[in-house]
Amino acid sequence: MRAKITYFVTAAVLVFYFVLVGSRGLLLIRHGTLVTVTFGVAVLILPVIGVWFLWKNTQFVRRANALAAELEAEGGLPVDDLARTPSGRIDRDAADAVFTKRREETEDAPDDWRAWFRLAVAYQDARDTPRARKAMQRAIALYRHPRQATPPTAGAPSGPADAPAPSGSSAPSPARPAFEDTKSSPSGA
């Protein structure tokens, strides 16, 4: 619930900012000189990009929450029982162990959105947010179009074999693309 409140407060502040910046851009355009019109148009582009970004993120969150609700109804939502440090952060070794399990599950069922969802959660627990987001995008694509899931873009994990090995394993996966950082692990170590 706290995350939802934070998201809505941030979104409201951003919308207020977009309106404020947009009104300033319109004032510059109304001034009528070549310089102010040019600056006004440039200033109006920022809120447009911001609104688009906010909309895409809102869609992503709604779709991920829908998947989580369905997985919870099925009883397949991952349980958060990982060991934590005294400060409350998830222990890296515990996160790596769960990550290895989730990666193997995804290797066994690469077209199952549920496996990709759980892999995304494991990435997030290991503090690898970019890969968590890409794995969640893959889960959403598989959920929406089970037989026609779009192939991942460059840099996105195309399968669990592209997932980095947990920390402590220095050998890169043979299927790992050359552009990935071979030193990274799901825990960012």
Largest sheet: none
Radius of gyration from the alpha-carbon trace, in angstroms: 21 Å
What pattern of helices and strands is seen along the backbone? HHHHH
Shape: elongated
The mean pLDDT is: 78
Please give the number of β-strands: 0
Q: Unreliable runs, pLDDT <50, ≥5 residues? A: 165-189
Structural class: mainly alpha
Percent helix, as a range, is: 55-70%
User: What is the overall number of helices?
Assistant: 5
| Strand content range | under 5%
Please give the alpha-carbon distance between the first and last residues.
Answer: 30 Å
Give an overview in words.
This protein has helices spanning about 1-30, 35-75, 90-110, 115-125, 130-145. With about 190 residues, it is mainly α. It starts with a helix and ends in a 45-residue tail after the last helix.
